[in-house]
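Ops channel
N.P.: pipeline sanity check, posting one input/output pair.
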């Protein structure tokens, strides 16, 4: 069995273990397309693919390999590929590694270590307990100050913090946190052509697969052509690197669209971890708490349409669905809210993913606030592309919008007038050939602040422009 097949078998086994033992990381790992190539020194991801050096994977213990897979997934969960911006890639990788490894150790992952076959030095992850309360950006700023204070090496001298044989130091000389059973496994020397760091300086150099090496199963790929590898893949980013999101082009999406997709995946993964098993990093929960906060105070806004809510006696005939998942059957007070709201989302081609995420964040806020008994939703462009209903307490998590065509609200508004809604909320950029027939019920026209001029041209309803993050 060659290195590619052996590495793939080991990775697949630990990927399965990750799903059962740590559902948050395991469920997110399934979204990354695994590519086995000696062009990457250890592992790296760009938010779409997970590049794996077969020789490096075979240097790790089972627990260490599972940790590195979770480490790479964490880069995506925290959207480091999008947050890198114009920062120095090496320093950004170092900063994000500190942030991630603190979370992984807290979740009882094993601290990986391995012997670099090129230098004979023992290597392990970066860890600094003082960084546990900082964001990646804050850590980056501190590392920038540290780098500036380091004396510049004289010709012929080693770089400050360079690893020495047998010492368990991180890449920059910081003290590594020891883990359990983290000695490299036996019989795991990389084969010819697949040693980490061999012939892999810079993108595309030495990127050919090991002689005769082919991946074992369809879940991974052999080394891609040099021209298909992302920038910086050959750099030394420790046990795993984060690469910039691929540039927009044929078959690729923009970094902002990719980040929006990962936002949805993160929410799904948190739900999986809460329902089944595993730990969710505090930094991830914090990012979700800040993620997609509604920009409209719907509790106050809806009062302008229904007045102050006047509760009647609780009704057991229709239990409050918000608490059923917790095993609690409580009565509902249906007259505290509008019975039916119709939420229309403009999903035409002019609407970007971040704006659609914002649209359904507002719809979710209405459900969370209990602002209606039934939220009827519809995706539209020149037609109603899809529609459905949710009850108070339900969730849009996992929802995929449809549409993407031109923009003309004639037929969609005709359909909307046939529905039994007491209030219509229309989220749009206002770039439409027709606003259609005015609905008989009140309308709120919602849109990003940069579209204020166009949404205010709507001939009916109240226009509200919101600032997006």
């Amino acid at each position: 069995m060659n290195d590619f097949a052996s590495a793939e078998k080991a990775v697949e086994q630990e990927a399965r273990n990750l799903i059962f033992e740590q559902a948050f990381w395991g469920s997110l790992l399934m979204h990354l397309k695994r590519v086995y190539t000696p062009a990457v020194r250890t592992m790296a991801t760009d938010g779409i693919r997970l590049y794996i050096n077969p020789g490096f994977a075979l240097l790790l213990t089972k627990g260490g390999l599972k940790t590195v897979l979770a480490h790479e997934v964490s880069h995506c969960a925290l959207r480091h590929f999008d947050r890198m911006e114009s920062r120095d890639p090496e320093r950004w990788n170092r900063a994000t590694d500190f942030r991630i490894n603190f979370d992984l150790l807290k979740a009882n992952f094993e601290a990986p270590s391995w012997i670099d076959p090129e230098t004979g030095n023992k290597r392990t992850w970066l860890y600094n307990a003082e960084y546990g309360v900082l964001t990646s950006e804050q850590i980056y700023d501190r590392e920038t100050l540290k780098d500036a204070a380091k004396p510049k090496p004289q010709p012929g001298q080693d770089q400050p913090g360079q690893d020495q044989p047998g010492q368990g130091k991180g890449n920059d000389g910081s003290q590594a946190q020891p883990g359990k059973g983290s000695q490299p496994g036996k019989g795991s020397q990389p084969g010819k052509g697949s040693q980490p760091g061999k012939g892999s300086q810079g993108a595309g150099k030495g990127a050919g697969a090991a002689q005769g090496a082919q991946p074992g199963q369809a879940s991974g790929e052999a080394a891609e052509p040099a021209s298909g590898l992302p920038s910086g893949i050959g750099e030394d980013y420790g046990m795993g690197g984060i690469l910039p999101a691929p540039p927009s082009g044929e078959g690729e999406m923009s970094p902002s669209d990719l980040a929006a997709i990962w936002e949805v995946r993160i929410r799904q993964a948190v739900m999986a971890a809460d329902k089944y098993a595993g730990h969710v990093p505090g930094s991830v929960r914090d990012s979700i708490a800040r993620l997609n906060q509604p920009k409209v105070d719907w509790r106050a806004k809806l009062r302008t349409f229904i007045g102050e809510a006047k509760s009647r006696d609780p009704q057991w005939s229709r239990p409050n669905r918000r608490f059923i998942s917790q095993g609690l059957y409580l009565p509902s007070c249906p007259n505290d809210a509008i019975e039916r709201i119709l939420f229309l989302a403009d999903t035409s081609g002019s609407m970007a993913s971040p704006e659609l995420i914002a649209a359904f964040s507002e719809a979710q806020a209405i459900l969370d606030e209990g602002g209606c008994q039934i939220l009827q939703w519809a995706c539209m462009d020149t037609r109603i592309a899809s529609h459905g209903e949710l009850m108070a307490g339900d969730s849009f998590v996992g929802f995929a919008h449809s549409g993407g065509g031109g923009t003309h609200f004639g037929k969609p508004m005709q359909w909307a007038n046939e529905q039994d809604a007491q209030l219509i909320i229309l989220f749009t950029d206002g770039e439409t050939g027709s606003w259609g027939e005015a609905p008989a019920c009140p309308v709120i026209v919602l849109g990003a602040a940069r579209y204020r001029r166009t949404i205010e041209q709507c001939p009916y309803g109240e226009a509200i422009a919101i600032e997006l993050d």
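N.P.: looks fine end to end. The first strand starts at residue 33 and ends at 36.
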